[in-house]
Amino acid sequence: MPGIGSATVVHPAKTGRVKGGVVVSKGSIPETVTFNAHVRSILSENCFFCHGPDANKREGELRLDSFEDAIRDRDGYQVIAPGNAAESELILRLLEESEEDVMPPPDSGRVVTAEQRRILERWIEQGAEYEGHWAFISPLRSEVPKPENYDWTRNPIDSFILSRLEEESIAPSSEADRRTLLRRLSLDLIGLPPTPEEIASFLSDTFSGAYERQVERLLASPHFGERMALPWLDAARYADSNGFQQDGDRHAWPWRDWVVDSMNENKPFDQFTIEQIAGDLLGEPTNDQLIATSFNRNHMLNNEGGAIPEEQRNNYVFDRVDTTATTWLGMTMACAQCHDHKYDALTQKDYYRFSAYFNNVPEGGRADYRANRIMLAEPVLELPTEDQAKERDDFKARIQTEKEKLEAAELEIAAAQVKWEIITRENPPKSLDRNRFLLLRNTVTEGSDGTNPSLRRYYLENDAPEEWKAIQKTINQLNNQLEKVQAGIVAVMIMEEREERRETFVLNRGDYESPGESVLPGTPEALFDLDTDAPSNRLGLAEWLVSPENPLTARVIVNRYWQHHFGTGLVKTAEDFGVQGEQPSHPALLDWLATEFVETGWDMKHMHRLMVTSATYRQSSKARPELVDVDPENRLLARGARFRLPAMLIRDSALFASGLLRTDVGGRPVYPYQPEGLWHEFSFEQFSYTPSSGTDLYRRSLYTFWRRTIGPPNMFDSPNRQVCQVKGATTNTPLHALTTLNDPTFVEAARVFAERILTYGGETDETRLSYAFRQALGRDPSDVEAGALNTALERSRSYYRDSPDDAAALATVGESDAPEAIAMEEYASYTNVAQIIFNTDEFLTRE
Question: Which listed residue, 331, 465, 680, 824, has the most CB atoms within 10 A of its CB?
């Protein structure tokens, strides 16, 4: 509550104010008010900023997040008097009319509503019992409820959902039709719509378990890993460049492929975690386990001229702390970098103890340029192909052979080089050629002891006998060839530990130049203690993150799985499980899922299977008028979730429907179409963009090169990948429609789809339009839809009949050749029809 006095709390009676009795409303507020469910959010939003955990900013010597402090006697009165709202200073201040004494202060911008005040009053009257924050208490596996309409349920998820619906006297929706179900399932699990053949197979499968067989087919698909990798890449701030003005490229894609492979092989999530946090600390780590640690090297790299290496190194450590805390713990730990957290029980010391785990990497804060715009910071892992390794080793061996020839003649060379004396102040030459003097001066001043290997190399290249010159020339040529081989070798940034631990300090206001108390690695004190036998390095941290005792990790991860399948998490604020975050809509269900995740060995596919086979998931998403007022956001889940597809999936769906999509898994990033000169406008280095050619243009969006300063322009609402993001944004602007109507990828997909329609759709417009609908949407058009498409088709024919040049221009968009056997007017007209279908709500939406 901002500003209850600047130093002490003042009781109103001592200022001559008279306040009448407080009436506790018996209105629509809950009969039983609890701290976690009803009170904490009010105090957190309105009071904790000045009267919370942060000791440095605390006013009035008051902590409202502490029961002991809130109820203590303050010279004859209490801020909270359990059982007596009328005598509680908290309530009196909310009712105060004076701007000087009312809380929250008018200039804070915060207001406690009348309903919120009545909740506080009832809570105090009922004893003002405080509770620990729900997310910091280990989840308990509660008994699965048995709702009245138990026959509707398919697994325990449904029992929790239906029990809550029955409490509200709401009935669930009927099951979606099979076509909609398979499309929903396919988009959720592999990110691609089902083919007409897959739909037909499902519709004709009348045996028990037909739906479950589709689930297993999709879980086993290699595209499952691609779909599930997308949100993890957002959390990991994955990109193919370093960010900032220079924004040099990097080899990040081996880690991306590792994520896809891990999802496909259903690597247990605890192992998935340990390998990313501390794969290098495992016994004899494999290359894959080292690549996994690139998770914590996905941060941006600042190599600008004015960047201070030590400052940047600290920034990279901070990034790892914030990303790890958000991804696994759902905590806004970044808020404790400069001071104690304003709302959560996280101290600044907690932050820097946590940062000590990531502060022992042998890095210097600067990156090194390699070939082809690649800019990497040590430590790195080189990943040569078999041919590259052989070629590299061959050049190294040949170079060594030539060097041995020179070493064999060392005495002769040294004798011939006597005149190349080390010139010092104590040994000045009597005379020396001016040009050579300048050369020696400029060279020698680079050496710490007045010598430099370049002197020997200069002598061998210029003044030595021809035989020795030839050997040195050969060495130079071999080194140049070796450099070319090295330039082609993929190298990925990984984690390593220094042999001698780097000391970590609490930094005053987060300033790297203002170190305070020295700290050792440790986890937040508000959570459970680290095992005393655990190593005090990243491996110990990783094991702590996935310990069954950790109250957060399992909850946070299953909540994001729920968010993936239902549009919104059981905890809406997936990024914040702290006191500022929202309460779970179904707390018992969240805890049941979290314990199920742990007890089944952190089986990721099991959790996805459990969610998508539930009756809750299989409900129709059609809007129900009676739910608009009682549950406008569908938090109770009385119907299926419906939301616009991510931009990546929309692009992939268009390419898939057209037949252009290339579906092989993994590999280097590709460069699809984008506006010419776009990179020039957004990069200091004036990068040029050369689109890929051939089938590389049509790879899944997952493989598109991602530049941090300007991401792919057709990926609307996608994160910039500069920082960790675990909850995507969904907006609705004309820019989306302009993209799907005009972006070359969508236009080319539409015209190739048109060729497909005209080739395989039959001889009449009716059969062709039905074919187009089945390919894109998995069903035949209704009479109304067919009529609208026919009208659009005739208008297009009329237009292109009068404007043949426009038809010809349309046929040139993209790299695909236009068909020679189809009239251009007809081809362009059906291209427009294809664009209309690609822009239908049904095509763009996951229903």
Answer: 331
Residues 571/548, Cβ–Cβ less than 8 Å: no
Exposed / middle / buried, residue 619 (Cβ in 10 Å: 0-12, 13-18, 19+): buried
What tokens were used for 354? 């946590």
Domain region containing 91: 12-131
Assess whether pLDDT exceeds 70 at residue 471: yes
- Of residues 235, 239, 236, the one with CA closest to residue 248: 239
Mean pLDDT confidence for 726-737: 87
Cα(494)–Cα(482) distance, integer angstroms: 24
Q: Which residues contact 165 (CB under 8 A, 6 or more apart)?
A: 147, 171, 172, 636, 637, 638
The answer as to whether 403 is a domain residue is yes
Specify whether 374 is located in the same domain as 522. yes
Closest CA to 822 of 755, 770, 771: 755
279 and 374 within one domain: yes
Number of structural domains in the chain:
4
Q: Identify whether 714 is part of a domain.
A: no
Q: Which residues contact 769 (CB under 8 A, 6 or more apart)?
A: 761, 781, 786, 789, 790, 793, 833
| DSSP per position, 696-714 | GGGB-GGGB---SSS--TT
User: What pLDDT, in 10s, does the model give residues 387-401?
Assistant: 999 999 999 999 999
Task: Please name which of 281, 289, 451 lies closest in space to residue 381, comparing C-alpha atoms.
Answer: 289
Residue bearing tokens 């609908």: 773
Cα atoms in the Cβ-side hemisphere of radius 13 Å centred on 815: 11
Residue at which a domain ends, from 91, 109, 131: 131
**CA angle in degrees (0–180, nearest 5) for 127-132-134:** 115
Residue 272 has a pLDDT of 99
Examine the domain organization and report whether 482 and 508 are in the same domain: no
Per-residue DSSP letters for 48-105? HHHHSS-GGG--TT--TT-HHHHHS-SSS-BSS-TT-GGGBHHHHHHH---TTT-SS-
Q: Which residues pair with 382 in a beta bridge?
A: 491
Query: What amino acid is encoded at 484 in this protein?
Result: K
pLDDT per residue as tens digits for the range 92-143: 888 887 778 788 888 888 888 989 989 998 999 888 888 889 999 999 999 9
